[in-house]
Amino acid sequence: MSTANQNHASGQKSSCFRHLHFDKNQISLPIRFTYPFNYDPHPLCVLAATEVQKYLNENSTAIGHDFGLDGNLSADAIGKMFGVLIVRNREEEIGFISAYSGKLGGRNTHSFFVPPIIDLLNEKGFFRKGETELNLINHQIEVLENDREYLSSLEDFIKAKQNHEIFLKKARQNFKHGRMTRKACRKKAAAELSEDDFNSLLENHKKESNREQSEIKMLVCKYKEEAAELKSKLDFYQKQIDELKEKRKIKSGALQKRIFKSFSFLNSRGERKNLKEIFEDTVRKVPPAGAGECAAPRLLQYAYENGLDPVAMAEFWYGCAPPSEIRRHGSFYPPCRSKCEPILRHMLQGLNVETDPMVHSVPEKQLEIIYEDEAVAVVNKPEGLLSVPGKKVKDSVLTRISKLYPENNSPFIVHRLDLSTSGVMIIAKTKEAHKILQKEFKDRKVVKRYVALVEGNIEGNEGFIDLPLRVDLDNRPRQMVCFSYGKPSKTKWKVLKRNEKFCRLHFFPLTGRTHQLRVHSAHKQGLDSPIKGDDLYGTREYRLYLHADYIRFYHPVSGKKMGFYIPPDF
Predict the structure, then answer these.
(1) Is the distance from CB of 541 to CB of 533 less than 8 angstroms?
(2) Among 54-63, 228-237, 254-263, 494-503, where is mean pLDDT lowest?
(3) 356 part of the active site
(4) N or C: which end of the chain has fewer CB within 10 A?
(5) Are strands 422-428 and 546-554 parallel, antiparallel or unpaired?
(6) Cα→Cα distances 79→26, 83, 316, 472, Å
Protein backbone atom coordinates (compact mmCIF):
# COMPACT_ATOMS: atom_id res chain seq x y z
CA MET A 1 0.00 0.00 0.00
CA SER A 2 1.24 3.51 -0.71
CA THR A 3 -0.08 7.04 -0.45
CA ALA A 4 -0.14 9.85 -2.98
CA ASN A 5 -1.89 13.06 -3.88
CA GLN A 6 -4.57 13.09 -6.54
CA ASN A 7 -6.37 15.70 -8.67
CA HIS A 8 -9.80 16.79 -7.51
CA ALA A 9 -12.69 18.45 -9.30
CA SER A 10 -10.97 21.82 -9.06
CA GLY A 11 -8.01 20.48 -11.04
CA GLN A 12 -5.65 21.11 -8.14
CA LYS A 13 -3.99 18.52 -5.96
CA SER A 14 -5.25 17.69 -2.50
CA SER A 15 -3.03 16.24 0.18
CA CYS A 16 -6.03 14.51 1.74
CA PHE A 17 -6.66 11.96 -1.02
CA ARG A 18 -4.43 8.90 -0.78
CA HIS A 19 -4.16 6.03 -3.21
CA LEU A 20 -5.10 2.61 -1.92
CA HIS A 21 -3.33 -0.26 -3.66
CA PHE A 22 -4.95 -3.66 -3.29
CA ASP A 23 -5.41 -6.89 -5.19
CA LYS A 24 -8.72 -6.59 -7.03
CA ASN A 25 -8.84 -10.35 -7.37
CA GLN A 26 -8.79 -10.65 -3.58
CA ILE A 27 -10.88 -7.61 -2.57
CA SER A 28 -13.88 -6.44 -4.56
CA LEU A 29 -15.54 -3.07 -4.20
CA PRO A 30 -18.79 -2.98 -2.20
CA ILE A 31 -21.98 -2.81 -4.23
CA ARG A 32 -23.67 -0.42 -1.78
CA PHE A 33 -22.36 2.24 0.58
CA THR A 34 -21.97 1.41 4.28
CA TYR A 35 -24.99 1.72 6.53
CA PRO A 36 -23.03 3.60 9.23
CA PHE A 37 -24.85 2.50 12.38
CA ASN A 38 -24.68 -1.27 11.92
CA TYR A 39 -21.79 -2.55 9.83
CA ASP A 40 -18.78 -4.81 9.52
CA PRO A 41 -15.84 -2.78 8.15
CA HIS A 42 -15.16 -3.50 4.50
CA PRO A 43 -11.63 -4.91 3.85
CA LEU A 44 -10.72 -1.67 2.06
CA CYS A 45 -11.69 0.30 5.15
CA VAL A 46 -9.52 -2.00 7.26
CA LEU A 47 -6.58 -1.35 4.91
CA ALA A 48 -7.16 2.40 5.07
CA ALA A 49 -7.49 2.33 8.86
CA THR A 50 -4.19 0.46 9.08
CA GLU A 51 -2.57 3.21 7.02
CA VAL A 52 -3.98 5.92 9.30
CA GLN A 53 -2.86 4.07 12.43
CA LYS A 54 0.63 3.73 10.93
CA TYR A 55 0.71 7.48 10.38
CA LEU A 56 -0.45 8.14 13.93
CA ASN A 57 2.16 5.77 15.36
CA GLU A 58 4.94 7.53 13.47
CA ASN A 59 3.77 11.10 14.06
CA SER A 60 2.26 11.11 17.57
CA THR A 61 4.87 13.57 18.89
CA ALA A 62 4.36 16.02 16.02
CA ILE A 63 0.58 15.77 16.37
CA GLY A 64 0.88 16.79 20.01
CA HIS A 65 -1.94 14.61 21.36
CA ASP A 66 -1.45 12.15 24.22
CA PHE A 67 -3.27 8.97 23.18
CA GLY A 68 -2.19 7.17 26.36
CA LEU A 69 -0.47 4.30 24.54
CA ASP A 70 2.93 4.54 26.23
CA GLY A 71 1.69 2.89 29.42
CA ASN A 72 2.16 6.04 31.51
CA LEU A 73 -1.33 7.45 31.55
CA SER A 74 -1.37 11.17 32.26
CA ALA A 75 -4.44 13.16 33.28
CA ASP A 76 -4.73 14.40 29.67
CA ALA A 77 -4.36 10.99 28.01
CA ILE A 78 -7.40 10.10 25.91
CA GLY A 79 -8.05 8.24 22.69
CA LYS A 80 -9.86 9.68 19.68
CA MET A 81 -12.36 8.46 17.12
CA PHE A 82 -11.00 8.44 13.57
CA GLY A 83 -12.79 7.73 10.32
CA VAL A 84 -11.79 6.56 6.84
CA LEU A 85 -13.82 7.01 3.69
CA ILE A 86 -12.99 4.92 0.63
CA VAL A 87 -13.55 7.11 -2.44
CA ARG A 88 -13.28 7.00 -6.24
CA ASN A 89 -11.86 10.09 -7.97
CA ARG A 90 -12.71 11.34 -11.45
CA GLU A 91 -9.93 9.23 -12.93
CA GLU A 92 -11.73 6.15 -11.48
CA GLU A 93 -8.88 5.56 -9.05
CA ILE A 94 -9.66 4.16 -5.62
CA GLY A 95 -8.21 5.87 -2.56
CA PHE A 96 -9.19 7.07 0.86
CA ILE A 97 -9.52 10.19 2.95
CA SER A 98 -9.43 10.29 6.74
CA ALA A 99 -10.69 12.47 9.57
CA TYR A 100 -10.93 12.67 13.35
CA SER A 101 -13.73 13.81 15.62
CA GLY A 102 -13.40 17.08 17.49
CA LYS A 103 -9.93 18.51 18.05
CA LEU A 104 -6.56 16.78 17.80
CA GLY A 105 -3.62 18.16 19.71
CA GLY A 106 -5.66 21.27 20.45
CA ARG A 107 -6.10 21.98 16.74
CA ASN A 108 -8.81 21.57 14.14
CA THR A 109 -6.52 21.18 11.12
CA HIS A 110 -3.79 18.66 10.31
CA SER A 111 -2.43 18.16 6.80
CA PHE A 112 -3.00 14.39 6.79
CA PHE A 113 -6.71 14.72 7.61
CA VAL A 114 -9.61 16.49 5.93
CA PRO A 115 -10.36 19.94 7.35
CA PRO A 116 -13.35 20.66 9.59
CA ILE A 117 -16.55 21.84 7.97
CA ILE A 118 -16.22 25.06 9.98
CA ASP A 119 -12.94 25.81 11.76
CA LEU A 120 -14.19 27.24 15.03
CA LEU A 121 -10.59 27.64 16.21
CA ASN A 122 -9.65 30.01 13.38
CA GLU A 123 -8.42 33.15 15.15
CA LYS A 124 -9.91 35.35 12.43
CA GLY A 125 -13.23 33.54 12.33
CA PHE A 126 -16.57 34.73 13.70
CA PHE A 127 -16.57 32.17 16.52
CA ARG A 128 -13.27 33.30 18.01
CA LYS A 129 -14.40 36.90 17.75
CA GLY A 130 -17.71 36.10 19.45
CA GLU A 131 -15.93 34.01 22.07
CA THR A 132 -13.61 36.92 22.85
CA GLU A 133 -16.60 39.24 23.31
CA LEU A 134 -18.29 36.74 25.64
CA ASN A 135 -15.09 36.29 27.64
CA LEU A 136 -14.85 40.06 28.06
CA ILE A 137 -18.42 40.20 29.38
CA ASN A 138 -17.68 37.30 31.73
CA HIS A 139 -14.66 39.18 33.02
CA GLN A 140 -16.73 42.33 33.60
CA ILE A 141 -19.34 40.31 35.51
CA GLU A 142 -16.62 38.66 37.58
CA VAL A 143 -15.07 42.03 38.45
CA LEU A 144 -18.43 43.43 39.58
CA GLU A 145 -19.38 40.32 41.55
CA ASN A 146 -16.06 40.50 43.41
CA ASP A 147 -16.12 44.27 44.00
CA ARG A 148 -15.61 45.05 47.71
CA GLU A 149 -18.41 47.61 47.82
CA TYR A 150 -20.80 45.18 46.15
CA LEU A 151 -19.89 42.32 48.50
CA SER A 152 -20.14 44.64 51.50
CA SER A 153 -23.58 45.91 50.36
CA LEU A 154 -24.73 42.34 49.77
CA GLU A 155 -23.53 41.27 53.22
CA ASP A 156 -25.21 44.26 54.91
CA PHE A 157 -28.49 43.56 53.12
CA ILE A 158 -28.48 39.87 54.06
CA LYS A 159 -27.56 40.58 57.68
CA ALA A 160 -30.21 43.30 58.02
CA LYS A 161 -32.85 41.00 56.55
CA GLN A 162 -31.89 38.24 58.98
CA ASN A 163 -31.93 40.64 61.96
CA HIS A 164 -35.29 42.06 60.94
CA GLU A 165 -36.77 38.59 60.79
CA ILE A 166 -35.38 37.78 64.24
CA PHE A 167 -36.68 41.01 65.86
CA LEU A 168 -40.10 40.73 64.21
CA LYS A 169 -40.40 37.13 65.27
CA LYS A 170 -39.58 38.10 68.87
CA ALA A 171 -42.06 41.01 68.79
CA ARG A 172 -44.84 38.73 67.48
CA GLN A 173 -44.02 36.17 70.16
CA ASN A 174 -44.25 38.91 72.84
CA PHE A 175 -47.58 40.03 71.44
CA LYS A 176 -48.87 36.45 71.49
CA HIS A 177 -47.65 35.98 75.07
CA GLY A 178 -49.32 39.28 76.11
CA ARG A 179 -52.58 38.23 74.47
CA MET A 180 -52.56 34.92 76.33
CA THR A 181 -51.73 36.70 79.62
CA ARG A 182 -54.59 39.14 79.14
CA LYS A 183 -56.96 36.32 78.28
CA ALA A 184 -56.06 34.48 81.52
CA CYS A 185 -56.43 37.72 83.45
CA ARG A 186 -59.91 38.34 82.01
CA LYS A 187 -61.00 34.82 82.84
CA LYS A 188 -60.01 35.27 86.47
CA ALA A 189 -61.31 38.85 86.71
CA ALA A 190 -64.75 37.89 85.38
CA ALA A 191 -65.50 36.12 88.64
CA GLU A 192 -63.90 38.68 90.98
CA LEU A 193 -64.52 42.20 89.60
CA SER A 194 -67.64 44.24 89.38
CA GLU A 195 -69.13 44.89 85.98
CA ASP A 196 -67.70 48.45 85.80
CA ASP A 197 -64.23 47.33 86.88
CA PHE A 198 -64.31 44.42 84.44
CA ASN A 199 -65.34 46.73 81.58
CA SER A 200 -62.51 49.07 82.54
CA LEU A 201 -60.11 46.09 82.44
CA LEU A 202 -61.36 45.14 78.98
CA GLU A 203 -60.76 48.69 77.75
CA ASN A 204 -57.20 48.68 79.11
CA HIS A 205 -56.49 45.30 77.50
CA LYS A 206 -57.79 46.56 74.19
CA LYS A 207 -55.50 49.61 74.39
CA GLU A 208 -52.52 47.38 75.24
CA SER A 209 -53.30 45.10 72.30
CA ASN A 210 -53.66 48.03 69.90
CA ARG A 211 -50.42 49.57 71.17
CA GLU A 212 -48.48 46.31 70.71
CA GLN A 213 -49.94 45.79 67.22
CA SER A 214 -49.06 49.38 66.35
CA GLU A 215 -45.49 48.82 67.55
CA ILE A 216 -45.19 45.75 65.34
CA LYS A 217 -46.48 47.72 62.33
CA MET A 218 -44.00 50.49 63.07
CA LEU A 219 -41.19 47.94 63.27
CA VAL A 220 -42.25 46.49 59.91
CA CYS A 221 -42.24 49.95 58.32
CA LYS A 222 -38.90 50.78 59.89
CA TYR A 223 -37.30 47.56 58.68
CA LYS A 224 -38.75 48.01 55.20
CA GLU A 225 -37.22 51.48 55.00
CA GLU A 226 -33.84 50.21 56.20
CA ALA A 227 -33.98 47.30 53.76
CA ALA A 228 -34.97 49.61 50.88
CA GLU A 229 -32.01 51.90 51.61
CA LEU A 230 -29.59 48.96 51.71
CA LYS A 231 -31.13 47.41 48.59
CA SER A 232 -30.74 50.66 46.65
CA LYS A 233 -26.97 50.45 47.24
CA LEU A 234 -27.01 46.80 46.23
CA ASP A 235 -29.16 47.49 43.15
CA PHE A 236 -26.58 49.93 41.84
CA TYR A 237 -24.27 46.98 41.26
CA GLN A 238 -26.91 44.32 40.66
CA LYS A 239 -28.41 46.30 37.80
CA GLN A 240 -25.05 46.43 36.04
CA ILE A 241 -24.52 42.70 36.60
CA ASP A 242 -28.01 41.81 35.35
CA GLU A 243 -27.58 44.01 32.26
CA LEU A 244 -24.27 42.31 31.48
CA LYS A 245 -25.79 38.85 31.96
CA GLU A 246 -28.66 39.72 29.63
CA LYS A 247 -26.18 41.06 27.10
CA ARG A 248 -24.20 37.83 27.41
CA LYS A 249 -27.35 35.76 26.94
CA ILE A 250 -28.29 37.65 23.76
CA LYS A 251 -24.77 37.48 22.31
CA SER A 252 -24.39 33.80 23.21
CA GLY A 253 -27.73 32.95 21.59
CA ALA A 254 -26.85 34.89 18.45
CA LEU A 255 -23.46 33.17 18.26
CA GLN A 256 -25.09 29.76 18.68
CA LYS A 257 -27.59 30.50 15.92
CA ARG A 258 -24.78 31.62 13.63
CA ILE A 259 -22.92 28.37 14.32
CA PHE A 260 -26.04 26.36 13.50
CA LYS A 261 -26.51 28.21 10.22
CA SER A 262 -22.81 28.13 9.28
CA PHE A 263 -22.57 24.35 9.57
CA SER A 264 -24.02 23.55 6.16
CA PHE A 265 -23.99 19.94 4.95
CA LEU A 266 -24.15 18.59 1.40
CA ASN A 267 -25.58 15.30 0.26
CA SER A 268 -24.91 13.27 -2.88
CA ARG A 269 -27.65 15.18 -4.73
CA GLY A 270 -25.93 18.51 -4.10
CA GLU A 271 -28.61 19.61 -1.62
CA ARG A 272 -27.59 21.64 1.43
CA LYS A 273 -29.02 21.78 4.93
CA ASN A 274 -27.65 23.53 7.99
CA LEU A 275 -27.67 22.22 11.55
CA LYS A 276 -30.79 24.17 12.47
CA GLU A 277 -32.74 22.74 9.53
CA ILE A 278 -31.50 19.20 10.15
CA PHE A 279 -32.35 19.07 13.85
CA GLU A 280 -35.65 20.93 13.78
CA ASP A 281 -37.33 17.66 12.76
CA THR A 282 -35.84 15.72 15.68
CA VAL A 283 -37.27 15.25 19.17
CA ARG A 284 -34.70 17.53 20.79
CA LYS A 285 -35.11 20.28 18.09
CA VAL A 286 -31.77 21.86 19.05
CA PRO A 287 -28.42 20.43 17.84
CA PRO A 288 -26.32 18.95 20.67
CA ALA A 289 -22.90 20.41 21.47
CA GLY A 290 -20.27 19.29 18.97
CA ALA A 291 -22.75 18.36 16.23
CA GLY A 292 -21.04 18.49 12.84
CA GLU A 293 -17.53 18.08 14.27
CA CYS A 294 -17.41 14.28 14.09
CA ALA A 295 -15.39 12.29 11.57
CA ALA A 296 -18.20 10.94 9.38
CA PRO A 297 -19.79 14.29 8.40
CA ARG A 298 -16.33 15.77 7.76
CA LEU A 299 -15.43 12.92 5.42
CA LEU A 300 -18.63 13.05 3.38
CA GLN A 301 -18.54 16.85 3.14
CA TYR A 302 -14.98 16.82 1.85
CA ALA A 303 -15.81 14.11 -0.69
CA TYR A 304 -18.83 15.99 -2.05
CA GLU A 305 -16.96 19.29 -2.25
CA ASN A 306 -13.98 17.74 -4.06
CA GLY A 307 -15.59 15.51 -6.64
CA LEU A 308 -14.92 12.23 -4.86
CA ASP A 309 -17.50 9.42 -4.95
CA PRO A 310 -18.01 7.72 -1.56
CA VAL A 311 -17.56 3.93 -1.70
CA ALA A 312 -17.37 2.71 1.92
CA MET A 313 -16.82 4.18 5.37
CA ALA A 314 -15.72 3.04 8.81
CA GLU A 315 -14.70 4.60 12.12
CA PHE A 316 -12.23 3.27 14.67
CA TRP A 317 -10.92 4.20 18.11
CA TYR A 318 -7.23 5.00 18.55
CA GLY A 319 -5.75 5.26 22.04
CA CYS A 320 -6.85 4.62 25.60
CA ALA A 321 -10.53 4.60 26.56
CA PRO A 322 -12.36 7.24 28.62
CA PRO A 323 -12.90 6.03 32.22
CA SER A 324 -16.66 5.68 31.81
CA GLU A 325 -16.84 4.19 28.30
CA ILE A 326 -15.78 0.96 26.64
CA ARG A 327 -13.49 1.78 23.74
CA ARG A 328 -10.76 -0.56 22.55
CA HIS A 329 -7.70 0.64 20.73
CA GLY A 330 -7.98 -0.20 17.03
CA SER A 331 -11.58 -1.45 17.21
CA PHE A 332 -14.26 -0.25 14.79
CA TYR A 333 -17.40 1.52 16.03
CA PRO A 334 -20.47 3.21 14.51
CA PRO A 335 -20.86 7.01 14.70
CA CYS A 336 -22.63 8.49 17.71
CA ARG A 337 -26.40 8.55 17.40
CA SER A 338 -27.37 11.88 18.97
CA LYS A 339 -24.96 14.07 16.99
CA CYS A 340 -24.45 12.17 13.76
CA GLU A 341 -27.60 10.24 12.92
CA PRO A 342 -29.74 13.26 11.85
CA ILE A 343 -26.81 14.74 9.91
CA LEU A 344 -25.93 11.49 8.14
CA ARG A 345 -29.58 10.83 7.34
CA HIS A 346 -29.38 13.96 5.17
CA MET A 347 -25.83 13.51 3.87
CA LEU A 348 -26.38 9.93 2.67
CA GLN A 349 -29.38 10.83 0.51
CA GLY A 350 -28.63 10.08 -3.12
CA LEU A 351 -26.19 7.27 -2.30
CA ASN A 352 -27.04 3.59 -2.72
CA VAL A 353 -26.77 2.74 0.98
CA GLU A 354 -26.97 -0.70 2.57
CA THR A 355 -30.28 -1.32 4.33
CA ASP A 356 -30.45 -1.05 8.10
CA PRO A 357 -30.43 -4.72 9.19
CA MET A 358 -32.91 -3.87 11.93
CA VAL A 359 -35.54 -2.69 9.44
CA HIS A 360 -36.10 -6.19 8.09
CA SER A 361 -37.81 -8.89 10.07
CA VAL A 362 -35.58 -11.22 12.01
CA PRO A 363 -35.12 -14.52 10.15
CA GLU A 364 -37.73 -16.92 11.44
CA LYS A 365 -36.29 -18.58 14.52
CA GLN A 366 -38.36 -20.90 16.60
CA LEU A 367 -39.59 -19.69 19.97
CA GLU A 368 -39.56 -22.89 21.99
CA ILE A 369 -42.04 -23.23 24.86
CA ILE A 370 -40.50 -25.49 27.49
CA TYR A 371 -43.25 -25.20 30.11
CA GLU A 372 -46.71 -23.73 30.41
CA ASP A 373 -49.81 -23.78 32.62
CA GLU A 374 -52.71 -21.40 33.18
CA ALA A 375 -50.58 -18.76 34.91
CA VAL A 376 -47.13 -18.84 33.29
CA ALA A 377 -45.15 -19.95 30.26
CA VAL A 378 -41.38 -20.47 30.13
CA VAL A 379 -39.77 -20.04 26.71
CA ASN A 380 -36.37 -20.33 25.07
CA LYS A 381 -35.72 -17.04 23.24
CA PRO A 382 -33.40 -17.32 20.22
CA GLU A 383 -30.68 -14.72 19.68
CA GLY A 384 -31.71 -11.95 17.27
CA LEU A 385 -35.32 -11.82 18.50
CA LEU A 386 -36.55 -8.84 20.52
CA SER A 387 -38.28 -9.40 23.85
CA VAL A 388 -40.87 -6.70 23.06
CA PRO A 389 -41.65 -4.86 19.80
CA GLY A 390 -39.22 -2.10 18.83
CA LYS A 391 -39.67 1.10 16.83
CA LYS A 392 -38.61 -0.54 13.56
CA VAL A 393 -39.16 -4.24 14.22
CA LYS A 394 -42.46 -5.60 15.54
CA ASP A 395 -41.51 -9.28 15.64
CA SER A 396 -40.75 -10.19 19.26
CA VAL A 397 -41.34 -12.71 22.03
CA LEU A 398 -44.40 -10.74 23.12
CA THR A 399 -46.00 -10.56 19.67
CA ARG A 400 -45.43 -14.26 19.05
CA ILE A 401 -46.78 -15.28 22.46
CA SER A 402 -49.82 -13.03 21.91
CA LYS A 403 -50.59 -14.96 18.71
CA LEU A 404 -50.19 -18.28 20.53
CA TYR A 405 -52.62 -17.25 23.27
CA PRO A 406 -55.24 -15.10 21.52
CA GLU A 407 -57.76 -15.92 24.26
CA ASN A 408 -55.64 -14.02 26.78
CA ASN A 409 -56.24 -10.29 26.86
CA SER A 410 -52.53 -9.68 26.99
CA PRO A 411 -49.63 -11.91 28.04
CA PHE A 412 -47.13 -10.01 30.16
CA ILE A 413 -43.35 -9.93 29.78
CA VAL A 414 -41.96 -10.28 33.30
CA HIS A 415 -38.32 -9.62 32.39
CA ARG A 416 -36.35 -9.06 29.20
CA LEU A 417 -33.31 -10.40 27.40
CA ASP A 418 -31.27 -8.26 24.99
CA LEU A 419 -31.89 -8.73 21.27
CA SER A 420 -28.56 -10.53 20.94
CA THR A 421 -28.97 -12.73 24.04
CA SER A 422 -30.64 -16.13 23.90
CA GLY A 423 -32.12 -18.22 26.68
CA VAL A 424 -34.86 -18.78 29.19
CA MET A 425 -37.63 -16.22 29.77
CA ILE A 426 -40.74 -16.22 31.97
CA ILE A 427 -44.08 -15.06 30.52
CA ALA A 428 -47.05 -14.25 32.77
CA LYS A 429 -50.41 -15.19 31.29
CA THR A 430 -52.49 -13.17 33.77
CA LYS A 431 -52.21 -9.74 35.31
CA GLU A 432 -52.18 -11.23 38.81
CA ALA A 433 -49.34 -13.64 37.92
CA HIS A 434 -47.42 -10.75 36.39
CA LYS A 435 -47.80 -8.67 39.55
CA ILE A 436 -46.59 -11.51 41.81
CA LEU A 437 -43.63 -12.40 39.57
CA GLN A 438 -42.58 -8.78 39.27
CA LYS A 439 -42.46 -8.53 43.06
CA GLU A 440 -40.30 -11.67 43.15
CA PHE A 441 -37.83 -9.98 40.79
CA LYS A 442 -37.94 -6.78 42.83
CA ASP A 443 -37.33 -8.69 46.07
CA ARG A 444 -34.50 -10.63 44.35
CA LYS A 445 -36.13 -13.99 44.99
CA VAL A 446 -35.56 -15.00 41.37
CA VAL A 447 -32.21 -16.68 40.62
CA LYS A 448 -30.80 -16.06 37.12
CA ARG A 449 -27.70 -17.56 35.57
CA TYR A 450 -26.04 -16.90 32.24
CA VAL A 451 -23.29 -18.72 30.41
CA ALA A 452 -20.88 -16.73 28.22
CA LEU A 453 -17.66 -16.93 26.27
CA VAL A 454 -15.40 -13.95 26.97
CA GLU A 455 -12.33 -12.98 24.99
CA GLY A 456 -8.88 -13.64 26.42
CA ASN A 457 -7.81 -15.31 29.63
CA ILE A 458 -9.20 -13.36 32.58
CA GLU A 459 -7.52 -13.26 35.99
CA GLY A 460 -8.99 -15.28 38.83
CA ASN A 461 -11.61 -18.00 38.91
CA GLU A 462 -14.54 -16.11 40.42
CA GLY A 463 -15.42 -12.64 41.60
CA PHE A 464 -17.88 -9.80 42.05
CA ILE A 465 -18.36 -6.69 39.89
CA ASP A 466 -20.01 -3.53 41.24
CA LEU A 467 -20.10 -0.84 38.54
CA PRO A 468 -23.09 1.57 38.37
CA LEU A 469 -24.51 2.06 34.88
CA ARG A 470 -26.47 4.66 32.95
CA VAL A 471 -27.35 5.11 29.31
CA ASP A 472 -24.87 6.94 27.07
CA LEU A 473 -27.09 9.89 26.15
CA ASP A 474 -25.09 10.62 23.00
CA ASN A 475 -25.04 7.05 21.80
CA ARG A 476 -28.11 5.03 22.76
CA PRO A 477 -28.53 2.16 23.45
CA ARG A 478 -24.91 1.92 24.67
CA GLN A 479 -24.46 2.03 28.42
CA MET A 480 -21.61 3.59 30.37
CA VAL A 481 -20.15 3.35 33.86
CA CYS A 482 -21.09 6.40 35.93
CA PHE A 483 -20.39 6.67 39.64
CA SER A 484 -22.26 9.99 39.89
CA TYR A 485 -25.60 9.18 38.24
CA GLY A 486 -25.49 5.48 37.40
CA LYS A 487 -27.90 2.93 38.87
CA PRO A 488 -26.43 0.19 41.10
CA SER A 489 -25.37 -2.78 38.98
CA LYS A 490 -23.90 -5.91 40.56
CA THR A 491 -22.75 -9.20 39.06
CA LYS A 492 -21.12 -12.38 40.35
CA TRP A 493 -19.05 -14.52 37.98
CA LYS A 494 -17.31 -17.87 37.96
CA VAL A 495 -14.97 -19.42 35.39
CA LEU A 496 -15.99 -22.84 34.02
CA LYS A 497 -13.29 -23.52 31.39
CA ARG A 498 -10.30 -21.80 29.87
CA ASN A 499 -8.30 -21.99 26.66
CA GLU A 500 -5.82 -19.69 24.94
CA LYS A 501 -8.50 -17.55 23.29
CA PHE A 502 -11.59 -17.63 25.50
CA CYS A 503 -12.94 -18.21 28.98
CA ARG A 504 -16.26 -19.93 29.48
CA LEU A 505 -17.98 -18.67 32.60
CA HIS A 506 -21.21 -18.22 34.49
CA PHE A 507 -22.65 -14.79 35.24
CA PHE A 508 -25.05 -14.31 38.16
CA PRO A 509 -26.66 -10.83 37.83
CA LEU A 510 -27.86 -9.47 41.17
CA THR A 511 -29.48 -6.49 39.44
CA GLY A 512 -31.10 -6.24 36.01
CA ARG A 513 -29.70 -3.22 34.18
CA THR A 514 -29.64 -2.87 30.41
CA HIS A 515 -26.47 -4.47 28.96
CA GLN A 516 -25.24 -5.10 32.52
CA LEU A 517 -23.34 -8.33 31.79
CA ARG A 518 -21.91 -6.99 28.53
CA VAL A 519 -20.55 -3.81 30.13
CA HIS A 520 -19.33 -5.54 33.30
CA SER A 521 -17.48 -8.02 31.14
CA ALA A 522 -15.89 -5.50 28.76
CA HIS A 523 -15.10 -2.56 31.06
CA LYS A 524 -11.57 -2.11 32.41
CA GLN A 525 -12.85 -2.10 35.98
CA GLY A 526 -14.85 -5.26 35.30
CA LEU A 527 -13.33 -8.29 33.58
CA ASP A 528 -11.70 -6.14 30.87
CA SER A 529 -12.69 -8.87 28.41
CA PRO A 530 -15.73 -8.38 26.14
CA ILE A 531 -18.15 -11.20 25.51
CA LYS A 532 -17.37 -12.90 22.22
CA GLY A 533 -19.44 -11.47 19.37
CA ASP A 534 -20.45 -8.30 21.22
CA ASP A 535 -21.12 -5.75 18.48
CA LEU A 536 -21.41 -2.83 20.92
CA TYR A 537 -18.57 -3.40 23.39
CA GLY A 538 -16.33 -5.87 21.58
CA THR A 539 -16.04 -7.43 18.12
CA ARG A 540 -19.09 -8.44 16.07
CA GLU A 541 -19.57 -12.07 15.06
CA TYR A 542 -22.58 -13.96 13.76
CA ARG A 543 -24.02 -13.95 17.30
CA LEU A 544 -23.36 -12.76 20.84
CA TYR A 545 -22.07 -15.65 22.94
CA LEU A 546 -24.31 -14.93 25.91
CA HIS A 547 -27.12 -17.27 26.92
CA ALA A 548 -29.51 -17.27 29.89
CA ASP A 549 -29.27 -20.97 30.73
CA TYR A 550 -31.04 -21.20 34.10
CA ILE A 551 -33.80 -19.47 36.05
CA ARG A 552 -35.50 -20.32 39.35
CA PHE A 553 -38.63 -18.70 40.76
CA TYR A 554 -41.72 -19.39 42.88
CA HIS A 555 -44.89 -20.19 40.97
CA PRO A 556 -47.28 -17.21 41.30
CA VAL A 557 -50.28 -19.45 42.12
CA SER A 558 -48.98 -22.58 43.88
CA GLY A 559 -45.93 -20.98 45.46
CA LYS A 560 -43.91 -24.02 44.38
CA LYS A 561 -40.19 -23.43 43.67
CA MET A 562 -39.54 -24.01 39.95
CA GLY A 563 -36.25 -24.15 38.05
CA PHE A 564 -35.59 -24.42 34.32
CA TYR A 565 -32.32 -25.14 32.48
CA ILE A 566 -31.71 -24.61 28.76
CA PRO A 567 -28.19 -25.42 27.57
CA PRO A 568 -26.56 -23.01 25.09
CA ASP A 569 -25.80 -24.00 21.51
CA PHE A 570 -22.19 -22.89 21.82
Answers:
(1) yes
(2) 228-237
(3) no
(4) N
(5) parallel
(6) 32, 13, 10, 17
